[in-house]
Amino acid sequence: MTIGQALVEFRLELGFRSARGFYQFLSERKKLDFNYSYYMRIEKNKVVPSHQVILQLNDLIGKEKGEQLTQIYCSTLFPEMKHLFKRTEYPVVSKKIISSTKTPTSTLVKQKFLSPLQVAQITKSKNHYYLFLVVTLARIPIEKVILENLFTKEVLDGVLSDFAASKIIVMVGNKIHSYSKELKFPPAETDNLKKLYKMLDLWDAEFNTGFNLERLLHKVLIRRVSPRFIELIVNHCSLLLDLARASEETESAHNDEILTLTLSLSKGVLPG
Fold it and tell me: What's the sign of the alpha-carbon dihedral 190, 191, 196, 199?
């Protein structure tokens, strides 16, 4: 067993099919001395990491897995003395998981969109949807006790159970982390999804009130315009949305505020 193979085993056991998602999970828990590119070189066995990197990984993956990683690391450095290091056995089930990741449709990483089961869980109630937003927007794992200030314990336990079962969140001890921030809602190609998304639109409109967000601007403007200006206005609205999507700083520690942006533009004909 190589260091890279062991790391793949560990992240799969922790629920991460994506190496990028796993690296992001680690980096949000502790400032790492290596970047994602270097981590991928370790997983692919293209580099033997320093002992400082191994120690950092040990702190983040848990005592048992950390000890196993250290044993494999020492065996790698001193192959002629492997007999001095305890041999680590790995469950067969995890090897099945590794082979299944070769099939694009079998993993969340390649999935791009939320599965029907995940959409059903997220839209199960307003609390489900709001907790999904909170966890997905979080920069670091959230302590469960903090969420208990936003949701009742009974509601929180029920939602967390649903989300863990459908691989929407990962729970490590009392800390909660989004399984992946890269998944999107599927296109509204069915009547059921269209109905669900209309419900989410209503919940989005109530999000500010539910979490006491400060209202910065609220304007309603009704006026007559020429058809040529409508296209120009629509294009400017699209630019505004693009700006909001790209507004995160490269250093996530600076992204302290939550922004909600609602745009509604309609056109039609009235008498006169």
Answer: positive
